Structures are given as C-alpha cells and as structure tokens.
Amino acid sequence: MTIERPMFPPRDPTRRRFLSQAAGVAVGGTVLARVATQPLPAVAAPAWQLEPVFGLIEAHREASARHGAALREQERLERIGDPEASTVADEPCHADMRTWRTLVGAAPLTLAGLRAWASYLDEIRGVEEWMLEDYGPTLVVTLAEALGNLEVSS
Questions:
Q1: CA pair distance 140, 137, nearest whole angstrom
Q2: What share of the chain is helix, strand, coil (3-state, %, to 5)?
Q3: Is 52 helix (H, G, I), strand (E, B) or coil?
Q4: Separation of alpha carbons 90 and 68, rounded Å
Q5: What angle do CA 6, 11, 15 make, to 5 degrees?
Q6: Pick from 99, 93, 97: which is nearest to 68 by CA?
Q7: What are phi and psi of 78, to 5 degrees?
Q8: Do 107 and 146 contact (CB within 8 A), yes or no?
Q9: Where are the alpha helices (DSSP H) in the chain?
Q10: How far apart are CA 82 and CA 90, in angstroms?
Q11: Which terminus of the chain has fewer CB atoms gathered within 10 Å of its CB, N or C?
Q12: Which secondary-structure segment (H or E) carries 2?
C-alpha cells in the first residue's frame, strides 16, 4: 500500500514566488497558487485587436491610396475626353472621407494607440492640412476621450 503525498508547489526562495503563492492562498488555496505562478502562454493577438485605432489608421491609408489612384485615373480620362471621367473618383472619395471621419472620432485606448493616432494625424497635416482644419472640434473631443481612456487604464 502506497501513501500519496499531497501536491505542493516546488520550493522557491524568491520573494516574487512567495508573494504570488500567498496571494493565491488568500484567494483560494494552494492549488490556485500553483496555477497562478505558472507562466501563461504567450498570446499573439494582433495589435488592432488590442488597440482598434491601428486598424483604423491602416483602413484610412488604404482608402486614401485608392482615392489617389482614382483621381489619377480621372485625370487620365479627362485628358482623353471621356465624358464619364468626373465620376471615377466619387466612390473612392466618399470611402476615404468615411474612414477619415471614423478615424478622427475613434479615441485610442492605449498610450501606443494615442501615439500612433497623433503621429498619423501629423502625417496627414503634412499632406492635406485642410483635413485637420475641417475636423478640429472633433479631434479635440476625441483627444479628450482618449486621455480619459488612459486615465481609466492607469
């Protein structure tokens, strides 16, 4: 007849291990302490899932590029006298502006997101400054909301 010994966490003299075990015991016993001290597997979540503003920046970059390509095509068609040339860039223009409005109204959730958002806005300022002028009030409200998001997560 063999006697089973209870499972105890391995001895580790480090302060971090002791504190995590003590917290686990306080919450729910030694089993929880053992689970809580084991390293968690790394989760490779895409950045846009953690901070949606990254995806919005990319969506605007793509919409803006399509709009630019449509404008170039419109110009080419106008040079050859195509009567429908003026309609070529309509939908890409609307899509560009929809993604822009979504982006300027989306408050970043993290400091990294806020930095990327502000950097992208500065990039736009260098190319299409009027876009910032037209959306100044929205940008101020969004910035205030983003700062509130950072305050909550701190």
A1: 5
A2: 75, 0, 25
A3: helix
A4: 11
A5: 130
A6: 93
A7: -65, -40
A8: yes
A9: 15-28, 30-37, 47-50, 52-79, 90-105, 111-127, 129-134, 136-153
A10: 15
A11: N
A12: none
C-alpha pair distances (Å), 58 with each of 48, 120, 150: 10, 10, 22
**Token duo for residue 70:** 């449509």
pTM: 0.66
Q: Is the dihedral of CA 124, 130, 132, 135 positive or negative?
A: negative
Tokens of 23: 């917290």
| Number of C-beta neighbours around residue 51 at 10 A | 20
**What are the residue ranges spanned by the domains of the chain?**
50-153
Nearest CA among 73, 102, 114 for reference residue 90: 73
pLDDT in tens, 54-103: 999 999 999 999 999 999 999 999 999 999 999 999 999 999 999 999 99
